[in-house]
Input
Amino acid sequence: MQITIQSIIPEYFTPNSSEVWSKNFEFQPNSKYLVKAVSGSGKSSLFNFIYGLNNRFSGTILFNNTAIASLAESDWTTIRKEKISIVFQGLRLFPELTALENIQLKNVLTHHKSETDILKMMSQLDVDQLANKKAETLSYGQQQRVAIVRALCQPFKVLLLDEPFSHIDQAQITNAIKLVNQEVENNKATLIIASLGDTYNINYTKTLLL
Output
């Protein structure tokens, strides 16, 4: 899925000059992008625009050749289930549910992964032993790893990761990147990572300074 950005500007703040705001560019299929930004420059806003959670911007975003402003809520439901997956900066886990239950919330819609697959992915990120623990009892770094697995348990053509590794140690970052790259390749998808500065040793198609 190609995402075309045409001169978008948030309505609720005046962004600094960047390679994103007010510019025209594309996120090409089967490619990897880093959106590098300082805190408060709008990277989460950009991801929310693309994910359809915030339409307070001028300019145009197109999925393939369709302007997202024309999409109905039913279209977005399908897109979020089958085309775009995301790890929010705030994670959005349900604290009263277990780690496995949080992951299955996505997976139950498409049966994209078996429970065996899910537990294997959790094991790769060293959170399999926490499967039956409530999310609210986990550290933030553990919650980040659970959120990463959840995002990978659905079909996707675009994977958005908003500061996904900020509370994870280097060894686990390496494991997480390996898993993410593997699933991005399996889905023949585009990867877009927002970061305050780290590049995570990923071979990006392009880096955009926000």
The two ends are 22 Å apart (CA to CA). The mean pLDDT is 96.
